[in-house]
Each structure stands twice: as structure tokens, then as C-alpha cells.
Amino acid sequence: MLFVVLAIVAAVTQAYSRNELVLQDNIPDVIKTKQPLFAAEELPESLDYRQLGLMTMDLNQHIPVYCGSCWAHAAFSSIADRMKILSKGKQRDIIPSVQALINCGDAGSCNGGDSKAAYKWVHDNGGIPDWTCQQYQAKNMKCAPMNTCQNCDHSGTCEAVTEYPKIVVSEYGGVTGDQHIMSEILARGPVAAYIDANCLEDYTGGIDMYETCGKYTNHAIQINGWGTENGTDYWIGRNSWGRYWGEDGFFRIVRGGQYNVGTAYWAVPDVSEVQA
Description:
By secondary structure, the protein is α+β, with helices and mostly antiparallel strands.
């Protein structure tokens, strides 16, 4: 049992010495609708989409092998959750394929990437297949029809699938400032953001005060809500390190203190793709 625990800790800790962000310059926003902005007094004291049954399944970027794909997981878990929110929880979990993005996108790889660039690629490419088309293998692969969507029969023969549903986004962009970020999350759902993973290394629960970290970022996470405990304001974040990490795969980090989100990134999934 001790060996298993140490192996898990070692696998997670491996991320902290690596920069999983390879950011691209000058990615333009594509904004077609008015950006949400609530007055401070209109924002609720707390918001937790988990309590509303509006979060999709948890994922782990580090199995079956280590892969620095946090940037894609943060972006795609946010799209998936937003689709579920749009359906008011009536839709089953539909998860965009991180592996298809790694294989054929231009936003990054297992060596790091850019969450906003992931949104841009999905928008510009006309969509992305879901997890059932191309399951996560945690490795860099060549772009090919087989590595976009595939099926295997009882004989062990696999072939590319050319007709499949696509998850489409109609607009995407960035938002800065706590009030604007909270408004975006309240109106349309979770966002992707960047953080220093070293401050999450020993996290097991509670509010992380981010006291040992500065402005350096090397990891992407999802932010999906907020609250206050004993006078300390916090963000609710989702990580991509499995349910055995943190608070059942999630964490809380100080809001309005040492951790400054900076710019958070969002995308709006096409409503036509949201079906109960």
C-alpha cells in the first residue's frame, strides 16, 4: 500500500519541475455576443456547480503515462461542463477528445501548450470529436484519420471513422479581473486559467493560500466557482490529476490574496450541439 501511495505522489510531483505551458502570442478573441458583467452586489456569495449536478466526469492527464496536457484538459473540461450547464444537467457527459487535439491541433502537445490556442483551433477547425472517437493515450501521435476518430471490430481490425459528431465553439476569448471572471463563470460556466503547480504539490484539502508562489505559471487548471470560509475568500478549481488528488480532484485557492488569476480563458460551445 505504501508503495502505491508513493508511486502516485511521484507521478503527480513530476509535473512541478516541468513547464506545461507553451503559450502563443497575439491570439485574437472571437467575440460575437455581449460579454457578461454583473455588478458586485449581483454576484452570489458562493457558486459551486458541483452542488448543482452540472459538472462532467473527472480526468487524469498523467495516465497511462505522464503527459503535459493540462492546457488541453483545462480547456476541454470547461467546454464539457458548459455544455452540461446549457442543457441544465439533462445532457449526458460529452467530453471533447484531448488526444485528437494533441494529434491534429496546433495548440500544443504532451510537451505543453496553450488553452486559448486550443479554443482557437476548435473554432477554426470546425469542431473536435468527442472522447468516444479518440480516447486519451497520453502521447504525441501523428495527425491522421485513424488518429482523429476510429473503430475496431471483433477481429482486431481498426479503421478510421469519417462521419462523427463534432463539438463546436462559436466564440472564445479572455477575461481579466475577479468581477469579470466571476461574471463569466456565473453566466456561462467554467474557465481555464494558469497557476504555479509548485503550490499544489502538497495540497490535500482546505484553502491554499499560495504563499510560496509568485507570478510564475507552469500549469493550467479550470476555475468553476467561488466561496468564503471563515472570512477567507477562495476560488474553486478543478485539476486534471485524478480524483485521488486534493478534494476529490478539486481544490480551493485564495481569492483576492496572493493568487492572482490574471487572464482566464473561455469558449462558448455551439448550442446546437447540446442535446438532452
